[in-house]
Specification:
The complex is a heterodimer of chains A (80) and B (317). Chain A is α/β, with parallel strands linked by helices and 80 residues long. Helix content of chain A is 25%, strand content 18%. In chain B, helix 4 (71-92) packs antiparallel against helix 6, helix 7 (211-237) packs parallel to helix 9 (273-288) and helix 9 (273-288) runs antiparallel to helix 10 (300-316). The chains are: A alpha/beta (80), B mainly alpha (317). At the A-B interface, strand 1, helix 1, helix 2, helix 3 and strand 4 of A face helix 1, strand 1, helix 2, helix 9 and helix 10 of B. Strand 1 (14-15) of chain A pairs parallel with strand 1 (17-19) of chain B, so a sheet runs across the interface.
């Protein structure tokens, strides 16, 4: 698999601030996704967010989020 | 890790990705609500799972509230109760036929009376009940209440003393088990490493690996997976954390084993189903060891080790 640290491809994504997530916690159009390991997710996650550990993304992402145009907010433990 | 995830999702074909940079750290820092409601990001207690969304803490019955008090508190309350009841009996000596009676005489509301009243209070609370001083009228009820309360509090005091000793013993057992576990992990990792070394040497000398060696490799992979799981648990689930040096050495051992596995895996012409499954499992576990996501904050060197482990996970999986 490609080593992300060397990859220079720029993927388009936009940022989402905390306030917007807070305002849209109940909005079904926004899928909030937690990419931390399952244990960390269980210990505490943003209400309503889904668990998709990064290791499972290749195999389970499409299962969990079938709509490729879905607006998805991704977060993990903190600034990487 | 979040950015990496965004990249992976974009590769799959998602077109409307938003990245929340602050993550859990910022969310918690600004006081955001969390599910499940009973925990922030704290280490999971050993062996138990936090369970579904929390309900309000169950209301404790008053009995449980008493039991929850500290030892010192309980004794203080006990003494206070004796004094208060004593005063009660004494003040009652104002009228005749109320309060206490010593022998044939009513206990009066004077200095001597006070001493007798307190004495009676102690004798009642300790469930001795000599009978040299007896309560009269409604104060018999008060004496019974005092007796019951005294017993209750004493029961709590004794059970707390006993459980203190129990707790010390349990801590002792946990610590010993923990050290044994660490030792076992270290030993097994050394075995795995030396096994992998032999396999690599064979590869260099003979090129193709005989069936027997491949079988052996499958077992080694299984053993390594077990120990990797153990270290993963140490990072995520331990109440007692190993010191940083021990952790550093464990991670270093993991890295050299993972490197060996990656090298061997890379130069194998084909992999049996068992081997593939084993490698996959190892890759998943190793990927989980993320410096950002573990409950405790570690020194930068340890975080670097964890990053290395994740890199190697990608090479293997």
């Amino acid at each position: 698999m490609a080593n992300p640290k060397n990859a220079e491809t720029v993927h388009s994504y936009s940022l989402i601030p905390r306030e917007e997530i807070l305002a849209r916690l109940q909005d079904r159009a926004l899928a909030i996704v937690n990419v931390m390991p399952a244990d960390s997710f269980k210990a505490g996650h943003i209400p309503g967010s889904l668990s998709l550990p990064i290791a499972d993304i290749p195999t389970k992402a499409l299962q969990l989020l079938s709509n490729l145009q879905q607006e998805i907010a991704i977060y993990c433990a903190g600034p990487t | 890790m979040g950015k990496q995830a965004v990249g992976l999702l974009a590769e799959i074909g998602y077109t409307n990705l938003r990245y929340y940079v602050g993550g859990m750290a910022e969310w918690l820092g600004s006081g955001g609500a969390v599910e499940p409601a009973t925990s922030a990001v704290v280490p999971l207690s050993n062996g138990t799972s936090p369970g579904a969304a929390a309900v309000a803490a169950p209301r404790l019955s008053w009995l449980e509230k008493v039991a929850a008090l500290s030892l010192e508190r309980l004794i203080a309350i006990w003494l206070a109760m004796i004094v208060v009841f004593g005063l009660l009996y004494w003040i009652a000596g104002v009228g005749m036929g109320m309060g206490l009676q010593a022998g044939n005489q009513a206990v009066k509301a004077d200095g001597q009376g006070l001493v007798t009243a307190i004495y009676f209070s102690f004798v009642t609370a300790l469930s001795i009940g000599y009978g040299d001083v007896v309560p009269l009228g409604w104060f018999r009820l008060a004496a019974i209440v005092e007796g019951a309360a005294g017993l209750l509090i004493f029961g709590c005091v004794i059970s707390k003393l006993v459980s203190r000793r129990q707790e010390e013993l349990t801590e002792e057992i946990h610590r010993t088990t923990f050290e044994d576990r660490l030792d076992r992990v270290r030993t097994n990792l050394h075995l795995v490493f030396s096994d992998l070394g032999s396999v690599q040497q064979l590869q260099v000398e003979q090129g193709v690996l005989p069936e027997l060696v491949l079988r052996r490799l499958e077992s080694t992979v299984r053993v390594f997976r077990g120990e990797l799981q153990a270290v993963h648990d140490l990072l995520y689930r331990c109440r007692v954390m190993p010191d940083e040096e021990t952790m550093a050495s464990l991670l270093a051992n993991l890295i050299i084993c993972l490197q060996g596995l990656a090298d061997i895996g890379g130069s194998l012409p084909s992999r049996s189903a068992n081997l593939t499954a084993g490698f996959k499992s190892i890759a998943n576990l190793a990927n989980d060891i993320c410096g950002e996501c573990v409950p405790r904050t570690y020194a930068p060197e340890l975080k670097d080790s964890m990053d290395q482990i994740q890199e190697l996970a990608r090479r293997i999986g």
